[in-house]
């Protein structure tokens, strides 16, 4: 495959607009469109759904190509910096907004590694149970459950992750055995507060058991995790949070698994920020290397 065509493809995949991609690449609108068409013809695949309203959104084949090509791009950029010696000390301040558990249990250790490499750079992490607004300048970089549908953003899929049912052993010992999904109707659950859920992708229980008996609710997944440790019921928790805790047991591991996705994005003007770009590529590569943790393997 022609790498130049792939470079154009990745730019359009991130910003979803031919005109914006052309501006970033410093070329004409027609050049970008021609490159995308050439790549689709070369592969014999349709890579984008094209709409005058929503722009260029990835097809399943396009998403697959993006996921495979971005690690290649990251390694090429790292090799370029190493060979040319362009990697310079980073200074200033970066604020990263993200979901609560992912920020606390996955990103914090990674950011500690990143900061040892760039000690003069100040990092601020906002792991919060609500959406992060880049338009209001809540943060420079955001990691969220949903891709922004509009706006001048540079966006990429960061990772997929798994969630399963977890309970404390004391709870399981004092309640009826669970051998199949139907048995769950006899148990109590821990979940989000229905009218305060900030994303429909967090309505886990609706996908597993109907009319679940929820006895404890919280807007915080960390609070749900702590309630599970106290034996208050069964909770749907990210594997990267619960699987590493020996006090919890996975319930119906062969029958119940949910998959969700993290998106990483920033305002397009921040792409010129070398500190943010360096962090962007570091997180892409580091999270990819920890996919087993996210899968609960």
TrEMBL record:
Signal peptide segment: none
Family: Belongs to the LysR transcriptional regulatory family.
Name the record gives this protein: LysR family transcriptional regulator
Cross-referenced InterPro entries: LysR-type_TF_proteobact-type, LysR_HTH_N, LysR_subst-bd, WH-like_DNA-bd_sf, WH_DNA-bd_sf
Keyword Acetylation (UniProt): no
Residue stretches making up the HTH lysR-type domain: 1-59
Protein keywords: DNA-binding, Transcription, Transcription regulation
UniProt cross-references to Pfam families, sorted A to Z: HTH_1, LysR_substrate
Gene3D superfamilies for the chain: 3.40.190.290, Winged helix-like DNA-binding domain superfamily/Winged helix DNA-binding domain
Lineage top rank: taxon: Bacteria
